[in-house]
Design brief:
The chain is mainly beta. It is 7% helix and 53% strand. The protein has three domains: 75 residues, Phage tail protein beta-alpha-beta fold (3-Layer(bab) Sandwich); 108 residues, Carboxypeptidase-like, regulatory domain (Immunoglobulin-like), CATH 2.60.40.1120; 658 residues, TonB-dependent receptor, beta-barrel domain (Maltoporin, Chain A, Beta Barrel), CATH 2.40.170. It holds the Pfam family CarbopepD_reg_2.
């Protein structure tokens, strides 16, 4: 019996070996399609193929096979396609698209497992065999579309796969941002960024993708995915009138992301906020958020979490803006119609940013439409704005051009102040941006920006300052998992003073700073739980600290030019957004900053054990052009973590370590257009700060709540000696002091994003202190003890509300309250050598009165008809409706032997305004 069984097995084995030999073929294919190749195989063998011709590529092939099995040939032909094949026992070859045919049942198919997780069953069933779809409707008479990505392999059927692509408007070709792409049954989703790009993780097999966003037609489609792939969406606009549209794409972002103290402000958010003279301003909105304040009404610059105004990195399309304001700080220096959004980083600062201690204001401009000519115009009592978008290559390239100007001289002339009758104050700015989608993997953006202010408050002085910016950005997709951005940026800021008086002491003086940066930033998706960002940057500074020259041949002013300062600041950075598990997520970043001060330069050497004064100079050292004479730098840690307590509640913590190598020189309380910048050298060290943050974030229905605390320590903070001479001083280190700083506080934000009534309440309790201590009495302030900084305001509260009466009419209002800032008061007088002098208190010992202001507005939108030339928008607002006489500063004068305190204010009466906007 055994011998018979053995013989039968041997015969079967011999038969099968013979069949295998029959499968071997040799083919020489020249300029033939796959269909023709399959026909030749049928002629040479007994194999018969079954398939749909439209599945196969018609591209001509050149192939050579020598004594290869049919399985090997088919594997080679279809390896980079969506085609799978299955060979039956009787030599029939069945081709399938995407799906695989299984020749046997999986192991344990008839055995019910005792314990199997529901999620595992679902995922296994998704890809356990061919997917059969019945007729599925997506509305009346509309069959649900099915899209296939890749092909099924038995080795990848349970992989988590990456699907990415771009979402664009079918009519305009513009990217659609903040669109939600979700798979509801699996509770996963993604949101498109400003370029319309999305990336979502999907299990292999069948997924039903749904898209939704305000003003965009929702869609559903079947996506069968077996490999990482790309899927672009072209969606139609949707103007169907609804009772209420709720977009919850970012509803949990504040809870789920790892960042602390960070906020995004869209340009549309400024439309309904009443502001002075009706000008839309995203930077003013930023000051209503916790942790961001200004020194006073109409002041330029920002104080973020107890930091100085020069500690904020303000970027427009990745290039630095040194003075982001117009008209003494009343208006932002950016055309509001050209701005897309503003991201503020004041807690978790990404490793890609450096060079400032307190915050980053990252402003991005809009991309121009590449399909349709469009624009937006605004006319107000002081300013007018216009932006047009011009398609240059259909669905490829577009150009945005924006212009803005002020005609504000009439305000100064209408004030009841004779000294201002001959005053003038005006500004203008231009912006242009070119964006070009070269192909699916390459994109180019270029931005040019220029702004200029001219003002004269007195009849003999004309002030003129300007910003210039150039930005070039090349985005390239390197692979399915990696992408890169190469940036080249140049920024310039300068001011000039033209003095023309009644004497022969007329002069012209000015200041200028230039910087050029080259930056390469790369992103790599290591795996689902690791997203790596890394790169390198280098920045060259050139500072002309100041010069003065006589205006005419009869003027007696001696010409003077402070020598140029140059330096190189570079950095390496890397960060890993690491998802440890569903609860814990980390963002681990490291930046190494290196700074080199470059010649030509002459550096003073001061005697050790003595204060830095002209009398204590021991010598000097001279350095040649581009010679490095001083270096600074070190590692900067950027660490943050988020832990989810549940789907709507999380705890976050972060630590930042930062360096700053450039400083402002100003002994004013607030930012001035004539402030100068100073680079670190041998005698002035870079500033450094460490910041800790801890916060709790909660969502309750349509409300977002956050409570966050911070503590910051600073070193080498610059302050100035009393009566310091800063401008046109070649040896500025003799006039400045460097010391320590500390700041701490708690920030509360309650935000309601949806419903007829929406807005936010922001409250900050914070303190900011400096310490200027030294072994030398002349370099010590307040006996070396900590004292409040000029911008220390313990209480800061802002309430911003919008109430929508109908789809066209709405009310808005905001209320602001701040503790008065510190000042130094005279407290007595004394005599010395027969002369009488004023005795002042310790620095910043007193405070000016508290500040509060209420603004209201009424907004009227035009009708929402689809077919019309333009959509209009009226804003009627009243700034300082209570007529509060808020003090801007307090100063003292001597009259008849007595010291008298005087108060200066900006707006002491309600300021009404009306602005008309239209968009076409």
């Amino acid at each position: 019996m055994r011998s018979i069984t053995t013989i039968v097995l041997l015969l079967c084995f011999t038969f099968l070996m013979g069949q295998e030999e029959e499968r071997k073929v040799s083919l020489e294919i020249q300029n033939k399609s796959i269909t023709e190749l399959l026909s030749e195989i049928e002629q040479e063998t007994d194999f018969q193929f079954y398939y749909a011709e439209q599945w196969l590529d018609t591209t001509a092939l050149d192939k050579s096979y020598k004594n290869e099995s049919v399985e090997t040939i088919l594997t080679d032909l279809f390896q980079n396609t969506q085609i799978n094949f299955f060979i039956t026992w009787d030599d029939r070859v069945i081709l399938t698209r995407n799906n695989s045919i299984y020749g046997n049942l999986p192991e344990g198919f008839f055995t019910k497992p005792e314990q199997v997780e529901t999620e595992e069953i679902l995922q296994e069933n998704v890809s356990a065999g061919p997917i059969l779809l019945g007729k599925q409707n997506d509305g009346p008479d509309k069959v649900l579309e099915t899209i296939r990505i890749g092909r099924e392999r038995k080795t990848n059927r349970r992989d988590q796969l990456t699907l990415s692509g771009y979402v664009t408007n079918t009519s305009t070709g513009e990217p659609i941002a903040n669109l939600a792409i979700v798979v509801r049954k699996l509770n996963i989703g993604a949101v498109t960024d400003n370029t319309g790009f999305y990336e979502i993780k999907l299990p292999s097999g069948l997924n039903v993708l749904e898209t939704s966003s305000m003003g965009v037609e929702s869609s559903r489609r079947n996506v069968i995915i077996y490999d990482n792939g790309k899927l672009d969406f072209n969606l139609e606009e949707n103007f169907e009138q609804l009772d209420e549209v709720v977009v919850a794409a970012d509803a949990t972002r504040n809870v789920e992301d790892t960042s602390t103290g960070n906020t995004r402000i869209g340009s549309e958010a400024s439309k309904n906020i009443p502001l002075v003279l009706g000008e839309r301003d995203v930077l003013k909105i930023a000051t209503t958020l916790p942790g961001v304040s200004t020194a006073g009404e109409g002041s330029a610059g920002f104080n973020v979490r107890g930091g100085k105004t020069d500690q904020n990195l303000i970027l427009l399309d990745n290039a630095v803006i040194y003075n982001p304001t117009h008209f003494f700080g009343f208006f932002q220096a950016f055309n509001p119609f050209a701005i897309n959004d503003l991201n503020i980083y004041k807690g978790s600062i990404p490793a890609e940013f450096g060079g400032r201690l307190s915050s980053v204001f990252d402003i991005s401009s809009k991309d121009a439409s590449n399909t349709k000519f469009k624009g937006e115009v605004s006319v107000g009592p002081v300013t007018s704005n216009a932006v047009v978008e011009i398609p240059l290559a259909q669905e490829k390239a577009g150009l945005m051009v924006g212009a803005r100007g002020a005609y504000s001289d009439w305000i100064l002339r209408s004030l009841d102040e004779e000294n201002l009758n001959n005053s003038q104050a005006s500004f203008y700015d231009f912006i242009t941006k070119y964006n070009h989608k070269i192909n699916d993997n390459n994109e180019l953006r270029a931005t040019a920006y220029y702004t200029r202010d001219i003002f004269s408050i007195t009849s003999d002085s004309l002030f003129d300052y300007s910003n210039r910016l150039l930005s070039l950005q090349w985005n390239r997709k390197l692979s399915e998992k990696s992408s890169g951005t190469l940036m080249l940026n140049n920024s310039q800021y300068k001011f000039n003073i033209d003095f023309d008086g009644s004497t022969n002491r007329n002069f012209e003086q000015g200041f200028q700073i230039d910087e050029t940066e080259l930056k390469l930033q790369l992103k790599y998706l290591l795996k689902e739980s690791h997203t790596i960002d890394y790169g390198i940057s280098g920045k060259l500074y050139s500072v002309l600290p100041g010069e003065i020259a006589p205006k005419g041949s009869n003027d007696i002013i001696q010409p003077l030019a402070v020598p140029e300062e140059r330096a190189l600041e570079s950095a390496l950075f890397v960060s890993d957004n690491y998802k440890v598990n569903e609860k814990l997520q980390l963002d681990l970043g490291l930046r190494y900053s290196f700074y080199a001060a470059l010649g030509p330069s002459t550096q003073r050497i001061y005697r050790e054990g003595a204060p830095r004064t002209d009398a204590n100079v021991a010598g000097s050292e001279t350095f040649d052009n581009n010679e490095i004479f001083e270096t600074y730098g070190g590692p900067e840690a950027r660490i943050s973590a988020r832990y989810l307590l549940n789907d709507s509640l999380s705890i976050k913590a972060s630590f930042n370590n930062t360096y700053q190598f450039i400083h402002t020189l100003s002994n004013n309380t607030t930012v001035s257009p004539v402030d100068t910048w100073k680079l670190s050298d041998r005698n002035i060290e870079p500033q450094q700060a460490n910041q800790f943050s801890l916060g709790i974030y909660k969502n309750i229905k349509e409300y977002e709540l956050s409570l966050e605390g911070f503590y910051k320590r600073q070193n080498n903070i610059i302050d100035f000696k009393t009566g310091a001479q800063l401008f046109l001083n070649e040896n500025i280190e003799t006039e400045v002091l460097q010391g320590k700083g500390k700041a701490y506080g708690v920030e509360l934000l309650i935000r309601k994003n949806r419903g007829k009534l929406n807005g936010w309440l922001g409250y900050t309790y914070s303190r900011s202190f400096f310490q200027l201590d030294s072994e030398f009495p002349q370099e010590r302030v307040n006996d070396g003890e900590f004292f409040p900084s000029n911008f220390d305001k313990p209480h800061d509260l802002s309430l911003v509300l919008n109430y929508k009466l109908t789809r066209r009419f709405s009310f808005s209002g905001n209320f602001v309250y701040q503790t008065g800032r510190p000042v130094t008061f005279p407290v007595g007088n004394y005599e010395f050598n027969g002369n009488e002098f004023v005795l002042y208190s310790e620095r910043n010992q007193f405070r000016i009165p508290d500040f509060y202001r209420l603004d209201i507005g009424f907004n009227i939108e035009g009708n929402h008809k689809i077919k019309k030339f333009a959509h209009s928008f009226w804003t009627i607002s009243v700034y300082n409706v209570l007529g509060r006489n808020n003090p801007y500063s307090v100063f003292f004068v001597s009259q008849d032997g007595e010291i008298e305190a005087l108060q200066s204010s900006i707006f002491t009466i309600p300021i009404p305004s009306i602005t008309y906007n239209f968009r076409f």
